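Technical note accompanying the year-one report. For the benefit of new consortium partners, we illustrate the data format agreed upon in the data management plan: each record pairs a sequence with a structure-token string. No post-processing was applied to the example shown here.
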Amino acid sequence: MEKNVQRTDKKLKIAIIHPDLGIGGAERLIVDAAVQLASHGHNVHLFTSHHDKNRCFEETLAGPFSVHVHGDFLPRHIFYRFHALCAYLRCIFVALCALLLWPSFDIILADQVSVVIPLLKLKRSAKILFYCHFPDLLLAQHTTMLRRLYRRPIDMIEEATTGMADLVLVNSKFTASVFAKTFHRLHSRGILPAVLYPAVNVRQFDGPCTYTLNFLSVNRFEKKKNLELAISAFALLQSIGNGLPSPAKATLTIAGGYDKRLKENVEYLDELRGLAVEEGISEQVKFVTSCSTAERNELLSQCIAVLYTPKDEHFGIVPLEAMAAKKPVIACNSGGPLETIKHDVTGFLCEPTPFEFAQAMSKLLADPETAVRMGEEARNHVTQKFSTETFGEQLNHYVLDIHHRRIE
């Protein structure tokens, strides 16, 4: 039941708490949130445990909001284990600093880690939004008895603390359905998340656009991103594309977030390079690690299409960026891409196999005009449904809503 209160356009003091301000999709969303809330006149402060000025989005250096770093001295892992526990401790420290060192906030937006919500609720004057990109308990491994024992209290805490937020937001209808199936107790209590799609700044892709025979993959160097699918599909393209004008002239660029502090990033990049050598295409494959926004945009402006390889991705910002850059997207037919890509119109939704991806790639090589046509449709599609302006209006609505109404 909701208590109606007269709405005003009061400008609010807003805190955003995010674990690690790197250059991934979650970070892109939270930076967009800070920018858009500031553009609506709110006073925005972003709190995090890590912010590398050499590896971050430009807006965090000179944006319309302030960035405060607390707790970077705390470990990210203990001998490459206990990542979740360390993430909780780091976020709790950030939350405590925000509460103790700063005056009260009207709204606090907690991102990814829900364990901080009980602490934030101590500030009774503040309303709490929680953005759930995906239930962490589904992302974590539960493969051994020891892991299950370790994760059980963490998983219970995640559900209990998530339910303490005044409003839960998720990034797609797919994630909303997973949320309901995963958090049974919350669902039985009628706690349903609202969908707030991530967005893309379409105008940043207003520059020149070409369609060179280069397929582009943009993702973090993590195993769950399934980047080997892009390499295997490109290798297969060389054989099934014998009748095409120039498959041998095609190239593949794999770009994305890379952090040398993370063992998985280092090992996975070595594994992918080895796969390219094994497939005999290493001369046609280029790896670009931790490229800047400008470098990424340049890569998007010049490719013929973007390969998006994660399976069951809860949303995926890369397809939006690619379509905003007038490029078709070849993605797995599961998860968030089902809500963003229009099959055979703005790209291709495929089974996550090298053959299916290679078939879609061969269609674009056979007729590059198809890529141009799809790219135009893609740009129009993103402009209408996934612009930062639309995202900002919806987020501001939610912020004002919980400020003026207590959700019971």
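Partners are asked to follow this layout when depositing records. The longest strand covers residues 13-18.
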